[in-house]
Amino acid sequence: MANRNGSCTRLVLGFLAVAMLAISPAQAEKIEVAFVGVAHIHTPEFVGVLKQRTDDVTCKYVWDHDAARAKKRAAELNATAVDDLQQIWSDPQIKAVIICSETNLHKDLVLAAAKAHKHVYAEKPLGIGSADAYEMAKALDDAGLMFTTGYFMRDDPKVLFLKEQCDKGAFGTITRIRGVNVHNGALGGWFDSDWRWMADPSQSGVGGYGDLGTHSLDLLLWLMNQPVDRVTATISNGTARYPNCDEFGEGILLFHNGTIGTLAAGWDDVSNPLTIEICGTKGHAAIMNGKLYFKSASFPGSDDHKPWTELPQKLTRPIERFLDVLTGKKDVAPSVTADEAAYRSAVMEALYHGAKDHTWVEPVQPQGRN
Prior knowledge:
This protein has two domains: 156 residues, Rossmann fold, CATH 3.40.50.720; 161 residues, 2-Layer Sandwich (Dihydrodipicolinate Reductase, domain 2). It is built from twelve helices and 13 strands. Strand 1, helix 3 and strand 2 form a beta-alpha-beta unit. It is globular. The termini are close together. The N terminus is likely disordered.
């Protein structure tokens, strides 16, 4: 694993380790940040987070290539809308940037942030594909900067419990693992106006399968803690509401240890009852309709016919934990590293290539990343 997808230490502890090197509780103070791009559908949520944290975080600037969009968000945050990104990069008071631009702009913005030594929260997916994603991850790591992204599904207590049991071997040999993440975005026309770029793969890099699938892909890779040897997929444009944009798909992943993974995602579903399933030689688990069902030989008396309720606490959102580290707050949980985010882009890229060419594809692995 260390040679294929970064070391376990880096994957699990990298964010926290770099953060503690960068800022200690004794140095805690109110910080200033900037929005660099406000195109993403999660932007309103992040604006709300910053508006609730005026005691320790100030958003000083908002930039977007769409000036009207920047002015709108700047007004909500009592910030200054800027036309020139250099105003952000050159300001020593700006400790971090929140990048919610179109995905095809990520590379230039992240590389500029790394050069200016600004910590980075960038919305998912990190890259259009493996090449730009790995380049961004290397630049951030080489600069010793904090990074995280919006893989919020890790924060669910049910998923945290499953991660703990996977690591402890409570499932025995995991033979199959499945992730599903779907909603009715295309059916409901979510991307008809303000968020139209998200259904334009020239800007987003992916359609419905990659947009939602990246979340469940993150869970599969995180739970398994294994690289993927090869993948394939089938995707469809479904209702064809958005020209040249896929709306849903199904993929197969062969993990290095032999586990078979399946990944379903899309915008054409009216319900999402099953989100995770893990099948092993000593246990089974499924999250169904928001409830966890779990049975394992390691837990005598466990019964997968009734919900399992002995769960850890829910974590706060990734954006909040990112800000918590920057402001020197204690007990901050590790989050997604740049290496992890880049690898998810590489695997998703391979899934799309597999669908296009009707074949198995080997994801591009990190080179020389120890």
